[in-house]
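step=encode ok
step=design start
structure_in=
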């Protein structure tokens, strides 16, 4: 492993050789996997975006700060969350993947119902906790604990601030005419069902 040059809450940043870096995840902190950064000269290429938007954001910040260059490309090796859940902080970059990876990301990683996703994730974490409590094999227990910690960070990162600049659409003590007020309120309450972004 190359020389460690930066340590963050999510990962350690290593210089592998001239212009090539690796971010190695710290266990249970929300990065889970590894990522690569390659200095292309004028811009940067990132290989995988880590397990949470927060870890991906830190990866981007550190890479751009270290090199003084903007990230131009993001490669997704495959669709698993610990390699792509940080993608949203690279929305201005060109994302490169195989057709199959792109298809599986759309099929398996899209949140259709935010509240259901939270309930499902909490249920999954409870099942993991039960397995941890009932397992005596130390290797399996350690693996389950790490999985529990990482997936807890994913759940934490599901909750984003819901901020919208509405102009004259919403005013205090005055209802401006809206074509379908009930649908409008539903969009505000469940933006993920309408592909709305609040960040």
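sequence_out=
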């Amino acid at each position: 492993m190359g020389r460690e040059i930066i340590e963050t809450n999510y990962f350690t940043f290593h210089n592998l050789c001239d212009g090539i870096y690796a971010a190695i995840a710290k266990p249970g902190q929300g990065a889970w996997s590894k990522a690569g950064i390659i200095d292309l000269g004028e811009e940067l290429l990132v290989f995988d975006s880590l397990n949470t938007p927060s870890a991906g954001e830190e990866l981007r910040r550190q890479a751009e700060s270290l090199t003084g260059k903007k990230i131009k490309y993001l490669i997704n090796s495959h669709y698993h969350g610990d390699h792509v859940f940080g993608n949203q902080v690279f929305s201005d970059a060109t994302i490169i993947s195989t057709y199959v990876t792109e298809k599986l990301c759309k099929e398996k990683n899209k949140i259709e119902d935010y509240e259901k996703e939270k309930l499902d994730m909490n249920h999954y974490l409870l099942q993991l906790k039960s397995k941890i409590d009932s397992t005596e094999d130390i290797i399996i227990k350690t693996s389950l604990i790490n999985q529990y910690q990482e997936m807890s960070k994913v759940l934490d990162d599901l909750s984003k601030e819901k901020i919208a600049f509405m102009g004259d659409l919403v005013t205090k003590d005055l209802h401006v005419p809206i074509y379908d007020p009930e649908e409008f309120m539903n969009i505000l309450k469940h933006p993920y069902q309408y592909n709305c972004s609040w960040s």
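step=design ok
step=annotate ok -> Confidence is low (pLDDT under 50) at residues 195-199.
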